[in-house]
């Protein structure tokens, strides 16, 4: 399979952030990486690869250099997407119907969720003798749908999640069956489920389209296109026998709701991991701080392409196109971390990788979104650039992007992970490539 086909397969197997994390862990284990339990202190071996999971929804992978580590090349993205989180006491039963009580997670395009085949997936905490264990579950069938209201009855302009966006599970005979269905799918007894984090997801699978199949549409392209690309490039990046730099691939949870969780970009997860690497080498806190000055982070989260029906929404001189390369994102209010230094460093990486670069600014009279870059920088301060791949319909349950851009990002990140940075007083930097 080519990279686009691999991406679509990964998305199909990753309906929630928990499945994203598990599938990435499987990729790493297959490549010979060792999982570290955060509760243990595992000695790190030169040249070996490791990864850590937190909450089973965020993952950080890194590869120890042959020499004592003195810097990091980090790429950070996120594995969560706008959806609906199912409440614990979920069934809303009436004589006619059983609906499922759920609340919005993240800033979604509400209308796009209607009249699509949906199902439920996520994480269960299950009693296993004296232990509580985590089990992932995915009901791989068309289980639910949010039905629209006919325009003859009402034309809804603003959707109320408490009444307009409640998914239908079954007729009146389905009462009491929802968690039975979840338990049966997970292979456990309903009474052994102690708690859960379950989400709705769009059952439609991704596909290529256009005259030359130049577009791909799929759920969760924001941000699984970047997250998958960052992990694929990390695993393919060459080891540098003379390097002191640690390549790091981080995929966080909860970006869509602000990142302020123990597993989000605002947590100490990244800082804890980088400290672990430096301290394991026998270095001090001062060495850790010096290593950050010899480091860089890419915050990878998709960008807005010029819309075919509304080109006026784009900035007049910055108009990213799908299939035209990686987008460097800028914002005067610092919603993106990019500055002159980080933009120049990343542009040099792309030049070395022979990958085209575009630039994005919001139109000056329009607000825009933000990413995890600035949030992560509150815990680990270093040169950071915000980048992404151009896409349409961001935050829809079916998004569209360029079929060729995934390969562009993987090519650039392969080069990036093998590079190292030196910094001098007065604002001079040198990039060295493997």
Task: Describe how the helices and strands are arranged.
Elements: H1 3-12, H2 17-30, E1 34-36, E2 49-54, E3 58-63, E4 71-78, E5 83-93, E6 97-105, E7 118-128, E8 131-138, E9 168-171, H3 178-186, E10 193-202, E11 207-209, E12 215-218, H4 221-236, E13 245-252, H5 269-280, H6 285-293, E14 296-300, E15 303-304, E16 326-329, H7 340-353, E17 357-360, H8 373-377, E18 383-392, E19 399-402, H9 405-417, E20 420-424, E21 428-432
Helix pairs in contact: 1-4, 4-9, 7-9
CATH class of the largest domain: Alpha Beta
Share of helix, binned = 10-25%
- Helix-strand pattern: HHEEEEEEEEEHEEEHEHHEEEHEHEEHEE
Total of domains? 2
- Please report the number of helical segments: 9
Q: How far is it from the N-terminal to the C-terminal residue, by CA? A: 27 Å
User: CATH architecture of the largest domain, please?
Assistant: 3-Layer(aba) Sandwich
- What structural class results from the helix and strand content? alpha/beta
CA gyration radius, whole angstroms: 22 Å
Average of per-residue pLDDT values: 95
Overall form: globular
Percentage beta strand: 25-35%
DSSP E strands, number: 21
**Which stretches are low in confidence, meaning pLDDT under 50 for 5 or more residues running?**
none
CATH superfamily placement of the largest domain: Zn peptidases
The CATH topology of the largest domain comes to Aminopeptidase
Main β sheet profile: 13 strands, mixed
